[in-house]
Structures are given as structure tokens and as C-alpha cells.
Amino acid sequence: MAKKPDVTSKYSEKRSAIVHAASVLINETGVQATTLTKVARAIGLNATSVTYYFPRKDELIITVYAETIAMLKNLAQEALAEPTAAERIAAFVKLHVALRDRIRRGERGLMTALSEIRSLDQEHQDKLLQDYREVVNDVRLFFGEPANEQARALYSARAHILIEAMLWWPVWSLRYSVLDFPRVEKKMVEVLCHGIPAQHGEWNPSALPDGGWRSNGEQPVQQNDEFLRAATLMINDLGYRGASVNRIAEALNVTKGSFYHHHDAKDDLVMECFQRSYDRLSKVQMAGHKVEGSYWTRISSVLNELMELQFFDAMPLLRTTALQALDSEHKTDVVMRSNRLARRFAGFLIDGFADGSVRAIDPLVASQIIMSTLNGAYEARRWARRFDDPSSAIATYLSVLSEGMLAEVRA
């Protein structure tokens, strides 16, 4: 007697294929440009077939996010089973590198950027964010149970930075062959565990004079600057999809017509936000070259100033949350500019090798960890404001770079 086909298994396989196709499209073009028709076309179905599994686009987007977070949680819990903090960090990095290796070699992979969760309706947003917080809690446990609030704050910062580094890894991993992945993995773990300076824990940044990158200065604010500030904050908070023209105009109490007087389209505004952010970051880097002292002192001064912007300035730097939604040409431009800024940090590190202030680490890998640490800092704004002293918040957060994630909690 012929065996009946497993209908349940076929349904599951087709549903999984749809979710994976949607994940790829979201990463390539963003949520807004991902449609059920495009998803169907990617796997050789018609749109009606996709609606059998997901009647509405938002249902599919929610499923993609939920499964990505579930995967992150599985990776975190697998790493958490290791006996020591060092082994847990190494395992977490190894699992993420291995995932990217399998995807590069052709395996369907599901790891979607989570930047637009806050554009969903409140009910689903709350559930997904709660699930994500559980991932952060698991990673925080890599470092043990905190003995006090100071340790809890430090472990939270470490968990956030470690996850951000792994979410940024897929972007810059494209510059490497999979044959180089084992070495890159080792170098990432080295920086994350032990930090950057030759003198462990050294943190004595010099104050930089404002070179036009702060928005809290005394210069009169132009209306276009207000558009850029509102758009940057909204994209950072809600992602590209959530930062609609209507919302930006309402936040400034102006008409949509006023918006379009300054910008032909929303994408033009997003690109200008990226340009402004990268211009500010570049100015701070160049100012760091003028600081007296070692190259680690110069790097510290640059990082300290950039963290001031991310934590406390009225206009922080734009997160990479808008990157997905850009067309391929603009996306390439943004990633290229980001890589140039990363290479400038690598140059600081190389000069630090020469003067003995920086450990013998891979400067290209370390520079990308610096970039992800800065990029993710906006999400830690609320965390930073719990500190009585702003400089203490910055020093605690950046202790991941100054002394690594295995350093003892200071009394």
C-alpha cells in the first residue's frame, strides 16, 4: 500500500520557505519594500498561495521577527551552557560565525535585522520586545549573577555590546572569505574578552573642543536641522517604516508641504541623515588626531566624545536601522562610508601599535567592533541616564573596549 504524503510536513516546509524568503527580502530591501508578491516570486509561488499561509503581510513580518529572536535565544542558551564567561563569549561568537558560514555556502539562513519591530502595532511589538529582552538576559548571565546594581549595569552593557557586535557581523563579514572566518572569529573573541589598550583598563580621555558636531551648542537652529534631528530620532526609535513623513511633520508641528519644500522624498532625508551623522563622526575622529598623548589616549578621546553624542546630545548619530530600506546604490554608499570610518579607527590602532599604547590585536576586526559599539549605544540611552555622573556611564559602557568583558567589577 502506497504511503500517504505527509501533508503536515509539506505545509511546514512551504511555510518555512516563505518565512526564509521574507527574511532575505527584509534584509535586502527593508520591511516596506517587502511584499507578499515579491516573497511569492522568490520561491516560485503566486501571491494567492502565500496568503494561504499568511493572509496579511504584517503576520509574515511578525513571524520572521519571532523566529529570528527564537534563533538568537537558542544561540544564547547554547553558549550559556559553557562553564565560564570566557567560554560562553567564545561559543556565542563561534555560533554566529558558523551561521554566517553556512548561509554563505548556500544554506537558507534566518537572521533578520530587528530594526523595525517598533513600527508594528503595540501588542505584537510588546511581545517581540519582551522576547528580545529574554535574549539579553540570557547573554547577561554569561558573566554570572550580579552581586549589586553596579555589576548589573556593567553586565547589561556587556550583553548589549556583544549582541550588537554579532548583529553587525553579517554586514562586514562580506569583506572576508569563509576560509578566513576561523581567524576572524578568534580575533573578535580576543578584543571582546580583553579590550584594546596595552595598559589594561586605561581610560583617560581628553576633552575635545566642539568642532561643530554637537547640537546643544549656541548656534541658531535652522529648520532643515530640525528635520534632520526629528528624522534621526524617529528612525532610531521606530526604524525606516515607522518614521513616516506624517510623523516627522507632526513632531515638528509643520505641514507635509513644508517637509517636501526641503526634501524631494523621504529617502533623500534618510541619506542626508546618514551624511550628517558620518560627517559628525568624521570631524570627531579628525579632532582626535590633534590630542596630545598616546594613540590610545586619542582613540579614548574620540570614543568619549562620540558617546556623549549617543547618550546625551539632542541629536544622536543615526543608527544603521535605516540601512535595509535604502536602494542598493545608496546602501552601497552608506556601507562604504561606514567602512572608511572604520578604517580610520584601524589607522589609530595601527599607530597605537607603534607607540606601544595598543595591544597586538587585529585592527580591522577591532575597528568593526568599535563601530558596532558606537552604533548600538543609542539603544542604551535610558541605561546611561540612570547614572548620576554622565562620565561614569560612558566609562562603564566603554570598559568593554578599555579592559574587555572578563575584567572584574570595580568597587
How is this structure best described in words?
This protein has 411 residues and is mainly α. It folds into 2 domains: 11-145, Tetracycline Repressor, domain 2; 223-402, Orthogonal Bundle (Tetracycline Repressor, domain 2). Helices cover 66% and strands 0% of the residues. The chain has 18 helices and no strands. Helix 5 (85-104) runs antiparallel to helix 8 and helix 14 crosses helix 15 (363-376). The longest helix is centred in the C-terminal third of the chain and has 28 residues, at 328-355. The chain is globular and about 65 Å long. The N and C termini lie far apart (74 Å). Residues 1-5 have low confidence and may be disordered.
Compact description:
With 411 residues, the chain is mainly α. The protein has 2 domains: 11-145, Tetracycline Repressor, domain 2; 223-402, Tetracycline Repressor, domain 2 (Orthogonal Bundle), CATH 1.10.357.10.
Strand content: under 5%
Tell me about the largest β-sheet.
none
The SS-based structural class is mainly alpha
Going by CATH, the architecture of the largest domain would be: Orthogonal Bundle
Summarize model confidence as the mean pLDDT.
88
Distance between the termini: 74 Å
Break the fold down into its secondary structure elements and pairings.
Layout: H1 7-29, H2 36-42, H3 47-53, H4 57-80, H5 85-104, H6 122-140, H7 149-172, H8 181-194, H9 223-242, H10 245-252, H11 256-262, H12 266-288, H13 295-312, H14 328-355, H15 363-376, H16 381-384, H17 390-397, H18 399-402
Helix pairs in contact: 1-2, 1-4, 2-3, 4-5, 4-6, 5-7, 5-8, 6-7, 7-15, 9-10, 9-12, 12-13, 12-14, 13-14, 13-17, 14-15
